[in-house]
Structure formats: structure tokens, C-alpha cells
């Protein structure tokens, strides 16, 4: 697909430094043809498991560069125990542009189900927030992740959420995870209704 009539101008602006690049990969680029297919959200012992050097991905899902640097600090989770019925996992992290020019960062929220009745992916993207910051500026990025989004489909083709521990991760990409904390989802395993909460709201302040 072409970049449109303004595509060349946009590329030129990035090359000469008028604009800072801010794109992120929506797929992983394998290290070697022998690693194809590679998925960032693979399961253990499936495609992408790094059992040899040539497996895996150097440029992974969510990867991207810019002309400045960003520092992350002080990840916080409001409650480490949430209800399986209507719980919301509220996560915050402080972000600062520590470079000498303005730029854009994409803060990414990943989840891993630590113990499940089915084999689950090693990580799954659940939310992201794009943040524009001037040099030296800082902000707090907040995610509000509904427990409903921790679901999977069981052998009976039901969309369910199981109680238990989940790793909540903040990172710059699928393989550049900066912080990990664990949340305990409490209650009885539940089958989701037809209309479930499927949006992770995010903002910065």
C-alpha cells in the first residue's frame, strides 16, 4: 500500500530531523528464516520459543526508535487484588523525556496468565498510550484494564476468565519489559456474557 501524496514529504521531514519518528512494529522480524513464523505472543514450545540462537526476533512487536530518550519509573498498581466479577486493574507509570528535543513514546501494557487450565501466551498486549513530550517534560501514564480482558476461549468454545495470578508488565516493546508486578484475580471462574468489557482505557496526566 502506498504512503499517499504526502508520504514522501513525511519521510523527508523525519530524515532531516524536522519530525521525530514514532512508529512501532505491528509484527516481529525474525532473526533467521528458520525462525519463521515468529509471534511475539507465542506459547512455550511453540513457534518463536528461543531454543537456539537463530530463533527469536531482534526487532520485536512494539519496537520503534525516536530522536530522543525516555525514562520510565515508579510503576504502581492501585490494588493487587481485584474481583473477577467487575474488577479493573489500574496501572500507572511515570514517563520523562530525558533527551534534548521533543518526541513521542508509546507506552505498552502486557499481561501474562501465570497459571491456567490451558497453555497461554508468554505475553499479550492489552493496552498502549501514545505520549508526546517536550524535552525535559514528564507525565504519568495510566491504564485501566478490565478483568474481562484477561479472558480466553476454553475447549467448550466459551470465553472465560479464570481466577489466579497475572503478571502485569510495562515496556517499550514485547521484549523490552521494564517493570513487572503481579495481580491476584479473586472469585469464581466465570463465563463472560455476550457484551463484555473489551477496551483498556488509557490516558496521561
UniProtKB/TrEMBL annotation:
Record keywords: Hydrolase
InterPro entries for this protein: Cellulose_deg_GH3 (IPR050288), Fn3-like (IPR026891), Glyco_hydro_3_C (IPR002772), Glyco_hydro_3_C_sf (IPR036881), Ig-like_fold (IPR013783)
Keyword Hydrolase: yes
Domain Fibronectin type III-like: 105-174
One matching Pfam family: Glyco_hydro_3_C
Family: Belongs to the glycosyl hydrolase 3 family.
Full protein name: Fibronectin type III-like domain-contianing protein
Species whose genome carries this gene: Marinomonas rhodophyticola
Amino acid at each position: 500500500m502506498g504512503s499517499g501524496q504526502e508520504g514522501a514529504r513525511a519521510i523527508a521531514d523525519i530524515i532531516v530531523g524536522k519530525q521525530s519518528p514514532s512508529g512501532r512494529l505491528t509484527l516481529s522480524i525474525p532473526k533467521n528464516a528458520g525462525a519463521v513464523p515468529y509471534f511475539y505472543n507465542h506459547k512455550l514450545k511453540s513457534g518463536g520459543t528461543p531454543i537456539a540462537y537463530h530463533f527469536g526476533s531482534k526487532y520485536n512487536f512494539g519496537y520503534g526508535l525516536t530522536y530522543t530518550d525516555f525514562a520510565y519509573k515508579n510503576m504502581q498498581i492501585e490494588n493487587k487484588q481485584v474481583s473477577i466479577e467487575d474488577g479493573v486493574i489500574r496501572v500507572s507509570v511515570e514517563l520523562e523525556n530525558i533527551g534534548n528535543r521533543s518526541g513521542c513514546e508509546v507506552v505498552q501494557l502486557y499481561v501474562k496468565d501465570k497459571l491456567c487450565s490451558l497453555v497461554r501466551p508468554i505475553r499479550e498486549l492489552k493496552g498502549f498510550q501514545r505520549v508526546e513530550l517536550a524535552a525535559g517534560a514528564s507525565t504519568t501514564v495510566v491504564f485501566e484494564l478490565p478483568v474481562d480482558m484477561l479472558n480466553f476461549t476454553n475447549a467448550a468454545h466459551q470465553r472465560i476468565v479464570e481466577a489466579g495470578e497475572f503478571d502485569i508488565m510495562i515496556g517499550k516493546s514485547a521484549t523490552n519489559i521494564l517493570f513487572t508486578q503481579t495481580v491476584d484475580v479473586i472469585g469464581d471462574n466465570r463465563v463472560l456474557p455476550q457484551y463484555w468489557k473489551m477496551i483498556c482505557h488509557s490516558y496521561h496526566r
